[in-house]
Amino acid sequence: MFSTVTSFTMLRPDIYNPLLTTFEKVISGVEWVKPPPPLFRCFDGSSFGSTRLGPALPNIDVMLDNGQNWTLPGRRQLAGAGGRPDNIPYPASDNAPAIIFGNHQMQDNLVQFDLEKNTFGFSGLLLGRSTHCGNFNFNTGSS
Fold this sequence. Notes:
Blueprint: E1 10-11, H1 13-26, E2 32-33, E3 41-43, E4 50-51, E5 54-55, E6 60-63, E7 69-72, H2 74-77, E8 78-81, E9 84-87, E10 90-91, E11 99-100, H3 103-106, E12 111-114, E13 119-122
Parallel strand pairs: 1-10
Antiparallel strand pairs: 1-11, 2-3, 3-9, 4-5, 6-7, 8-9, 12-13
Domain Peptidase A1: 1-123
InterPro entries: Aspartic_peptidase_A1, PEPTIDASE_A1, Peptidase_aspartic_dom_sf, TAXi_C
Protein name: Peptidase A1 domain-containing protein
């Protein structure tokens, strides 16, 4: 599910728990810090290396029903909280959709919702194309 009113992605516990366990293995040795409410897990951001796409973390690829990947680079996996990154996928309730994508993960992707066809499309991460939503030319290709 994609939500423009949910700030951060939420994952059902059967997905969240294995992801958090794997994430914590990948960043072993990084210090945890007390999260400010309502955040769940925070890490000391000074422990991460940096890339042009945010903290130096392996991408998280989410396979969608149509076989496409929604890729989350470091910048979209973590969000700043008081100057420190925070692990942003949150646990959701057991009866929630498997994944509820929040608007932080949708940033720097062009997302088109076609309500008549009940479909959506997305551009993929614009940052990897040296652009972002703030400087994208929406008139390209129009007549």
